[in-house]
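Interim report, section 4.2 (structural modelling).
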Amino acid sequence: MAKMFIAGESVDSVTGQTSEVRNPATGEVVDSVPKGNEQDVRRAVDAAEAAFDEWAHTPAEERAKMLFKAAALVDAERKSLSELLCREQGKPVMEAGGEMEHFHHGIEFYAGLASKVRGSQVPLPAKNAYGMVIHKPLGVCGAIVPWNFPITLMGTKVGPALAAGNTVVVKPASTTPLTTIRVIELMNQAGFPKGVLNVVTGPGSVVGEELLRNKKIRRIAFTGESGTGKHVAEVACGDFKRVTLELGGSDPMIVCEDADVQKAITGAMVGRFWNAGQACLAVKRLFVFDKVYDEFVGGLVGKVSRYEVGDGMTRAEKPKIRMGPLHTAQQREEIEQQVKDAIDRGAKVLLGGARPEGEQYAKGNYYLPTILENVPDDSRAVTEETFGPVLPIFRVTSLDEAIERANKSIYGLGSSIWTRNLDNIETAIDRLQAGNVWVNSLHYGYDELPFGGVKASGFGREHGPEALEYYLEPKGVVITR
Ligand code: NAD
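Predicted structure of the assembly:
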């Protein structure tokens, strides 16, 4: 059985209770983990608080070296960790490997920034006095992580938090704790003082809730669904904690008449169906100009037909591409309801729209990659986030129309435009209501750039040097000679 990691030790829950983690491809139990409760969170928070002073005053260069070492220790086990991630999350092992690589890159990115934090000196209108702005770590930070990219989204929190001198308690999603636990054990082997990096497993309503309410926690970094995010904001902001919220999205992708159609098709395919569509920044609404609509849609349907759903532990035979199951049965039901609603309102299914048939699929949460057209704007597949392999396509006649419809969403996470026309590019960058715009590029979160949303997609940023600022408090100092 896997254990939580608190104060430098692998431990059970104080209650001794456990819960099972099941493989979404087979329904089999992968392992079990402690079912933590409030007391377990308090143990971890107390350990993180006790470790804070030492860690905050460890020279930044040393913190950086430990983070580089932590990244290397995890990377050395990339293969076994990718397989574990595949078995608990469902994503193909090749995609899991990509996630581990992204984590490694992110931790190294923040390790490099640990010693680059700068302050400033400020002239003041007072005699013999000057001001300074210095940056101090906040204290104990809570990192609440979803199940879709459990490792990279943990890294985007832990990396900047530790680099800046904070200590952390991580809470993974209940269904994806195993790889996280192993990664945190390995990172601790780099020599962090006990209590600097902890993980507590258990239900969001218990473990997550205690993180939001614990008075010793100074900051919550949350990634998850917008409804949960609203609750997180109400409770944690109400308690004067610093909060960042990385929430849901319904990213529009706009394909103009002068786009490189083949590249745009690949962008739409990977952008929608990677991780079986369970990505916040996935292409969730596709607007295609009338003139290239038939060419684009025909090409996309052909290319997406190459996906073969199945257990992510085995590769599909070329030219097929593996797509794993949905993460939970509930997630699949949600997608089925959204597709049914679209069809009931008149949508046409161009591909998929059902579970795959066959004995081999009986035990997993499989769903076919699905492409829809003629989806009315008031359908759930348009107004809600579709967190699965379903892509509605819309025909548009102008950029104005595309942008107007793209912005008609409660979400504002990512967006993309595919065109060679500079005017179109500038207009889209200026007018799309989103935290991120990709131009002729795949929807992807680079560590080098700030990433986050507007509207119901949340606030604050992860990734980029900007993320470090969310883990530092500016302190004004006045010095008089
Ligand atoms: P979720 O909101 O159900 O859960 C996220 C985390 O919050 C889990 O660890 C869960 O246990 C915890 N949690 C649940 N209730 C809680 C509570 N009361 N207090 C504190 N923590 C609690 O989200 P999910 O289903 O795991 O993830 C999918 C969602 O995440 C999608 O909406 C997706 O778009 C979003 N997401 C956003 C980003 C981004 O960067 N914007 C990235 C990935 C996923």
